[in-house]
Amino acid sequence: MNPRFMQAAEALQKLQSFSAVIDVRSPSEFALDHMPGAQNWPVLSDAERAEVGTLYTQVDPFLANKRGAVLVARNIANHIEAHAADLPKSWAPLIYCWRGGNRSGAMAHILARIGFSVVVVQGGYRALRRALRADLEKLPGRLQFHVICGRTGCGKSRLLQSLHEAGAQVLDLEALAQHRGSVLGLEPGETQPSQKGFETRLWAALRHFETDRPVFVEAESKKIGALHLPDALMESMRLGRCIALELQMPQRVALLLADYARLSADRPLLLQRLAGLRALRGGDAVMRWQEQIARGDLAAFTADILQHHYDPSYMRSMGRNFRHFETAPIITLESLDAGSFHEAASRVLALSAAATAPGSNAKTTGTQAQSEVIGG
Question: Of 111, 134, 157, which closes a domain?
Answer without folding.
Answer: 134
